[in-house]
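User: beta-N-acetylhexosaminidase, Actinomadura gamaensis:
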Amino acid sequence: MSAPEDAARVPFDGMVRTRVDPALPSEGYRLTVGADGVEIVGGDEAGVFWGRQTLRQLLGPDAFRRAGSATGELPQVVVEDAPRFRWRGFMLDVARHFTPKSGVLRYIDLIAAHKLNVLHLHLTDDQGWRVEIKRYPRLTEVGSSRRRTKLGHGRPERWDERPHGGFFTQDDLREIVAYAAERHITVVPEIDLPGHMQAAIAAYPELGNTDVIDTAALEVKTDWGVNPHVLNAEEATLRFLEGVLEEVLDIFPSRFVHVGGDECPKDEWKASPSAQARIRELGVGDEDGLQSWIIRHFDRWLAERGRRLVGWDEILEGGLAEGATVMSWRGRDGGVTAAEAGHDVVMCPMQEVYLDHRQSDHPDEPVPFGWIETLRDVYAFDPVPPKLAGTGHAARVLGAQANMWTEQTENQQRIDYMVFPRLAAFAEAVWSPSEGRDYDDFERRMRAEHYARLDAMGVDYRRPDGPLPYQQRPGILGRPYTSPKYGES
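Assistant: Predicted structure for beta-N-acetylhexosaminidase:
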């Protein structure tokens, strides 16, 4: 946010008059700076809060320091604003590399400053289980630590031989949820199933396909990629997962609960006499039908408790559960299919808003992975796919989120480098109308104002000219994608 250069300036003593006016849009606000002081009117309390973020922007970079000044001079302006989408999200993967509570609280402050309102926590995966479940203590006793970690991709393989681990207690997570709520951010938990569950199987081998492999020999996964070891579909396993989710629901009040549903290879089910018998018993036809049945089960289970299931777009395979919301990550097509079928959609295509993907073809880009997604590319992102634009189905797009997977980001500095400044571009893309957005103006504002704000907040972002020497990772090979992006030829 910037003010006209010729706007008259008035002193600000830190006092702000606030009120709620339901005539304004939800999360919308009107900020008035005049000779008689500052007033923020919000359509609701969230709108008042977002108005305060704009006031911080007008005050200058020091207002973003934890001990920064809340006084100074302000331009006389009237700002009326409201978000385009109600789901403006950021996903942080705390499973592959654990981010401790202090780091998550810090990211809540960062996304709040950018007017994002959803934090999606990817809490479980093959490489680590990060949420305390009291009735199943081995999930964290065993599943939260791995003995070593793969570095990069390719040959020769390189390893960090240090054990890696960590998890959140339930009290930690309640603190995170409360801290986010004070900033009008909803925390959406993800417990990924029936794939991406090797950490859980390592802790409780009976959850795996014991008639196909020796699940007792499995350890928490130490490398990356799609994993063949998935849950079985027995009733006892469903009861186990319901027990996990009961405790998750007690921690997280979010209406939406993410159950993953992605990258579930069917090879073990195809080879398993128990899985084949289960398919016949349920009458679901094949392995895709079995996965769909599991997702439908938890869709109903969550609905009975007043919650809504959300999952990655693979949950479309075999038929979509009635109340499910789809996160479209493999491109835009899953979101289009789901919206046209009457399902809500959150757009997060990996070709456009996966922040673990490389930011340039700069030779010093650290551990280059995926497609090039520049600051300009992210700024150009529009959550409404062209096939839905102008149709009645467009309203099914709740919004979008940017996803940060952490296979190659082992600490806060590395996450900062990949996330910023691209998350600032994403935030503007999901808040502002698509018409009239001007990248050159955005880049000017970044250089004139916003990089200084990121500096004040202590963000170790990627500089416009490329990585600084300490941000590089020489010798650790990446896996850059050379195939065309979605929609390119």
